[in-house]
Design a protein that fits this description.
With 72 residues, the chain is an alpha+beta fold. The protein is 24% helix and 25% strand.
């Protein structure tokens, strides 16, 4: 999982801490359909993009909700 914050390194996690059923379903979908990308918006305000990492050989979660909250 990556987050758009300075000094934050990518971490490995199961889909469960990332969110609920929507996040788990999206992660499973991307694992099965490796050319796909899944975008998940949950009711608690989390917005995550799931993609397949060819290099790492697992699903990668990009947490982008902090970017959506920035004032321009």
């Amino acid at each position: 999982m990556t987050e758009p914050a300075e000094g934050r390194a990518a971490t490995k996690a199961t889909p469960t801490p990332l969110g609920g059923t929507r996040h788990l379903s999206a992660a499973q979908f991307v694992r099965d359909q490796r050319d796909a990308m899944a975008m998940v918006a949950s009711q608690d305000g989390r917005f995550t993009i799931f993609t397949w990492s060819q290099r790492e050989q697992f699903v990668h979660a990009h947490r982008v909700d902090p970017l959506l909250l920035q004032a321009h």
